[in-house]
């Protein structure tokens, strides 16, 4: 099961969700591969790799090898592990790939070439994407079974979500017919505020009929920033917090969906 976490807006909780969802799933005994597919390398930092720019092998090298039909680096050169979770890291070099992909025949399938043979080794592969609808995000969508869309009520934009959904429809028609939308996840929710209530109502009105909106909603909490700062998941940092419980709830919702 390959899931892309996508939203072309920055700051909607993509990286936080990829990391904590992976952790929650691994807590349920699942084997998870996290793919950092954002040149900012935030997920790589979350994972505790302090200087992503010094990595000898990252997603840049892997993508490059695939595009030049070279032998891939051995997995032990690029897989970083924490318990049941593996990570393929990224750094700013990945932005070069986005440029090179423009002239690449069948370039949309580059990430698929890496992940397809790895699929059977993991219960879940979760891809964290960069805040754009460019060629890296399209590569991630092309490789995925589904998309999880985090929505931050503070940054709600109907146009933004429509653009993302249109890209997913295009990818489905042209490159990857099996892709579906896993669901919309409300993140950074302060349920007392009018803003939250209004954004949630709009999401329900616009998409409630056609797209699953996860029952688990991620509360706004300073604990998330603290946990990120210490490169810990929120389940490790504050196991009893509402945010930890919310991510565990999300993991269960995914699993109940049959994967
Ligand atoms: N539930 C939350 N409560 C408070 N802050 C959060 C929460 N989720 C994420 N953040 C913070 O918001 C910022 C953006 O989150 P991030 O996951 O990096 O978003 P994205 O990957 O979409 O850009 C980060 O500083 C992160 O620590
Ligand atoms: Mg991010």
UniProtKB/TrEMBL annotation:
Domain AAA: 2-181
Record SUPFAM superfamilies: P-loop containing nucleoside triphosphate hydrolases (SSF52540)
Organism: Paenibacillus oleatilyticus
UniProt-recorded name of the protein: ParA family protein
Entry-linked CDD domains: ParAB_family (cd02042)
């Amino acid at each position: 099961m390959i899931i892309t976490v996508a939203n072309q807006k920055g700051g909607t909780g993509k990286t936080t969700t990829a990391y904590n969802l992976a952790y929650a799933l691994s807590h349920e005994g699942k084997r998870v591969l996290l793919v950092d597919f954002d040149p900012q390398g935030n997920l790589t930092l979350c994972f505790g790799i302090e200087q992503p720019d010094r990595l000898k092998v990252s997603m840049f090298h892997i993508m490059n090898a695939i595009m030049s039909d070279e032998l891939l680096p051995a997995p032990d050169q690029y897989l970083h592990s924490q318990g049941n979770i593996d990570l393929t890291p990224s750094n700013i070099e990945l932005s070069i790939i986005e440029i090179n992909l423009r002239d690449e025949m069948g370039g949309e399938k580059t990430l698929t070439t890496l992940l397809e043979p790895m699929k059977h080794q993991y219960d879940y592969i979760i891809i964290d994407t960069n805040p754009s609808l460019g060629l890296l995000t399209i590569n991630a969508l092309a490789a995925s079974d589904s998309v999880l869309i985090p929505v931050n009520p503070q940054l709600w934009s109907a146009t933004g979500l429509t653009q993302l959904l249109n890209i997913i429809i295009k990818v489905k028609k042209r490159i990857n017919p099996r892709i579906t939308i896993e669901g919309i996840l409300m993140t950074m929710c302060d349920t007392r505020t009018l803003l939250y209530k209004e954004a949630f109502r709009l999401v329900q009105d616009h998409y409630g009929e056609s797209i699953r909106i996860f029952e688990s909603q991620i509360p706004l909490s300073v604990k998330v920033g603290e946990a990120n700062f210490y490169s810990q998941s929120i389940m490790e940092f504050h196991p009893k917090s509402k945010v930890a419980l919310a991510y565990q709830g999300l993991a269960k919702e995914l699993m109940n969906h049959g994967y």
